[in-house]
Amino acid sequence: MREILIIGAGRSASSLIQYLLDKSQEEQLHLVIADLSLELAQKKTNNHPNATPIALDILDKSQRKAAIAKATIVISMLPAHLHIEIARDCVLFRKNLVTASYISDAMLTLDEEVKEYGLIFMNEMGLDPGIDHMSAMKVIDEIREKGGKMLLFESFCGGLVAPESDTNLWNYKFTWAPRNVVLAGQGGVAKFLQEGTYKYIPYTSLFRRTEFLEVEGYGRFEAYSNRDSLKYRSIYGLDDILTLYRGTIRRVGFSKAWNMFVQLGMTDDSYIMEDSENMSYRQFMNSFLPYHPTDSVEIKTRLQLKIDPDDIMWDKLLELDLFNDKKMVGLKNATPAQILEKILNDSWKLQPDDKDMIVMYHKFGYEINGKKVQMDSQMVCIGQDQTYTAMAKTVGLPVAMATLLILNGKITTPGVQLPILKEVYLPVLKELEQYGVVFKEQMLPYLGYKYS
């Protein structure tokens, strides 16, 4: 039996583990599912004969090294900053590695050694990053092979709630790490390119500069800019492109409402609020507002945000129970962002029967035979329930598929890499279609940006 060590049994691992267990007999696989919580690892194995749950603290060097040394291949589903120690051990014990996270600078420093030992460290193998790279490169390579010249590439992705489970005014529920949602867009200016002109959006304006998208059968969406779209020019071989933009999809109206939190300062993660443990939701709200001898917290909020009582924005705030003086924060030494995350979790947590939805949308503009054309590619994936979410499927399945392709010698290019080569994206995208991850392509007139 070939041993696959899966480190991290969290939300994104459910579909990954199920896929590999389903293939375990025919492919002669034994899964070792390792997590800090043995209970969680046990839950994910589902008493399968070809799976062994273990408790693993990756900060325990001897424990970590022992588990990696025994494995044939390693999958890390941990947060990105925890991959590096695992990666170094994989170099030490000559093991291939697969992750769903962005390639960090620390990971890149291992590239020379990884190549020297003929190892494959496949990163960015999930949804975004992952399926976005693969589906984009497939079309970009096809356009180039036909003799086309790329003019425009825009790529959008969002984890949302499915229409049948959309039960709040924000048209949103947490399908992924809530903390990442609260901190989205922070840490640097958003940079992109439109018709050859560099564009920059500071965090304070990010959620008021949105693009609109129509997705067949699902209506209208909006997208705000990701932090750095420009880094994908060289990765995708688009150094001469005129327009390059990557964004995050939400339902229309979300960004304008979210901007209220940004303007008040509630998404700030840089300082601790005094006595946060004993603070009520109402006190949290009031802490961002000016003092007034007679005006209520509600009135001060409306004045500060310039919203009327009959504005849908006001209804969205009320729905979150932000003015409740009985509900307590209950978090010690918490930042505003951490408190906001807790409050939002009350309202936006996926319920057991809720379904989530992934929407991905690419726009390709190119010139071929003297004519400018555009092709749009859309993918919508709906989850099953709170456990087997569309997010878990689209993050976990590509990781599992790549792992099997590496084990079976179908992916052979060594190095620290992301899935932009045909040997990776062609088989993975083809197999993903069997699981309902299908891109629909449509030819359109080239629009571009007339006034850049």
Q: Measure the end-to-end span.
A: 58 Å
* Estimated share of beta-strand residues: 15-25%
Q: What is the number of domains? A: 3
* Low-confidence runs of at least 5 consecutive residues: none
Helix content: 25-40%
Alpha-carbon Rg, integer: 23 Å
Average predicted local confidence, pLDDT: 94
Shape: globular
CATH class (first level) name of the largest domain: Alpha Beta
Question: What profile does the largest beta sheet have?
Answer: 7 strands, parallel
Total count of helical runs of at least 4 residues:
16
Please explain how this structure is put together.
The chain is an alpha/beta fold. The chain contains 16 helices and 16 strands. The protein has three domains: 2-122, Rossmann fold; 131-257 and 352-390 and 436-445, Dihydrodipicolinate Reductase, domain 2 (2-Layer Sandwich), CATH 3.30.360.10; 272-334, no CATH class. A seven-stranded parallel β-sheet has the order 3-2-1-4-5-6-15, with helices on both faces. Strands 10-11-12-7-13-14-16 form a seven-stranded mixed β-sheet, covered by helices on one side. 41% of the residues are buried.
Sum up the structure in keywords.
single chain, 452 residues, alpha/beta, Rossmann fold, Dihydrodipicolinate Reductase, domain 2, seven-stranded parallel beta sheet, seven-stranded mixed beta sheet, 16 helices, 34% helix, globular, Saccharopine dehydrogenase, saccharopine dehydrogenase activity
